Structures are given as structure tokens and as C-alpha cells.
Amino acid sequence: MLVVVIHVLGSGLHLIEDGPLDGPPVVLTSGLAGALSDWDPLARLLAPSVRVLRFDRPGIGANAPSPKAPSARREVAVLDEVLDVAGAPAVLVGHSLAGLHVEAFARLRPARVRGAVLVDPSLAPPGIGRPFDAGAVLATAVVRLGLAGLAARCASPLLRLAGRPPARAAVVAEFAGYADLVAEVDALRGAHPLPDVPWWVLTAGGTLGGASSARRILGDHGAMAALASHGVHRIVPGSGHLMQLDCPEAVAEAVLRCVRTGPSR
Question: 173 in helix, strand or coil?
Fold first, then answer.
């Protein structure tokens, strides 16, 4: 294991590397209030065959908050610095809110992406050509961000992370800016196509809720997969929102398929 500190947009980010230095790079990025430790089980599965890089985002863990407000462009800048360490192209794995960060990066930096796995991503269905409904987005955000009542499975890690003052400020700022982030990513869809790479969207089967909620989630995740020419949508039965902890084998399978398939361009 190697620990590196990188500096981006006024914040020092702690980055951990596992696996062979000459292996294909895989970058793991967390969603709202996520932490490095969330990825431990997945890193153990991947490290024998790939180079795994994971990091805390600005304002989380030991990282100072960024002076820049949360946005897709800020997270693209963060991923640029991480990929400078990783080498490119890399397979990007984004959980929850970070699924949108990964999509933005893939659209703006297509040559740096070998494949992508969106792990129970926050809802951001394609909306080119229709008015953006911020109210509807925020109404479903609490479910896909794992915040609805701080459900039992997610409550402990979220409360623990949000209880640290820097993390609390970062979490509040990112949640408040969620609708703006979705609008930003949706605008990129109209101008920047996705690269021709493997594109996996994994849905947590254990948090689909009732019939109406399940239809919305499955429809939106299916539409997000269909944005890519090689998009794949899979439901992971029994998994909670923190799929990388509940079912790391399912995430590892998708990642390794991306590594083996690679870009088609």
C-alpha cells in the first residue's frame, strides 16, 4: 500500500494505491459523505490483478475543504490530478453522487477513460430537450444518496463522517448543490458524447422500495446506461446503497470486465 498526497484547487487530497504498479489503473471515487474505508473490501478483491487508487474528496476525512464550490467541473479537476498519478486511461468507479462526477469526466476527458462502473448512482436521467425539474430531482435524491431517514444500513457510516466538522460542511454543500450538479451534467450530454468504452450501471436491489419507486429508479438507471453505446445495466439483488460494502464481488466483476474489454475506439 502506498499513500500519496496530491494538491488540487487549494486542497490536499489523500490517495491510497494498492496492487501492482504496472497493472491497469482503476480509480475509486466516493459519493456524498463517502470515505476511503468504504472501498476496502473491493480494493482487496481487485488488488491482485489491477492497480487500485482511492481517495477522499475535498472536505472529507483528513482533507481540507476546497475553496471552490461543489460542481462537476471541480470534480473533473480532482479526477485529472488523480489520473495524473494513476496514468491513463483508467477504469473509473463512482458511487452514488460520484457517478455523476464520473460521467462528467468521461464526457470532458474521453481519452483518459478506459471504462466506467456507476455504483447505485444518484438519479440523473437524460433530459436533453425538456425543462429541468429540480423539485423532482431533489425528491428522489434523498433515496439514492442514502439519506432517506438515514436508513439503518447507511446510518452509522454517514453519521460518523458527517459528525466531523470539515465533512459536515462538505456534505451540506454538496447536497444543497445536487440539483445544480444534475443540470450541469445534463448540459454536458448535449455537447460532449461519451467515449466508446464499457459503461456499467449497477442498481442496489435492496433499496428499490415500492413499485412506483422501483419503476422510477430502474427506468432512470436504465436510461443512464443507454447513454453509452456499450452500456450495461445490472441489478444487484439484496444490496443496500453501499454496494461496495454489501456486495463487493458484484462491483469487482463489473470492473474486471471493463479492464478486460477496454475501449473500442
Answer: helix
Place of cell 502506498: 2
Q: Is the bond leading into 67 cis (omega within 30 degrees of zero)?
A: no
- Quote the pTM value: 0.86
Question: pLDDT tens digit string along 153-179?
Answer: 333 444 444 444 445 677 888 888 888
Burial label for 150, CB within 10 Å (0-12, 13-18, 19+), is middle
Cell of 32: 456524498
- The CATH architecture to which 2-261 belongs is 3-Layer(aba) Sandwich (3.40)
- Residues 82 and 211: their CA atoms lie apart, in Å, by 40
Q: How far apart are alpha carbons 48 and 31 in whole angstroms?
A: 25
- The amino acid that residue 122 corresponds to is S
SS3 of 7, please? Answer: strand
Dihedral sign for Cα 202, 75, 134, 148, please.
positive
Distance CA 10, CA 247 (A): 35
Rounded to whole angstroms, how far apart are CA atoms 84 and 88?
7
At a CB cut-off of 8 Å and minimum separation 6, what does 39 contact? Answer: 28, 30, 52, 54, 244
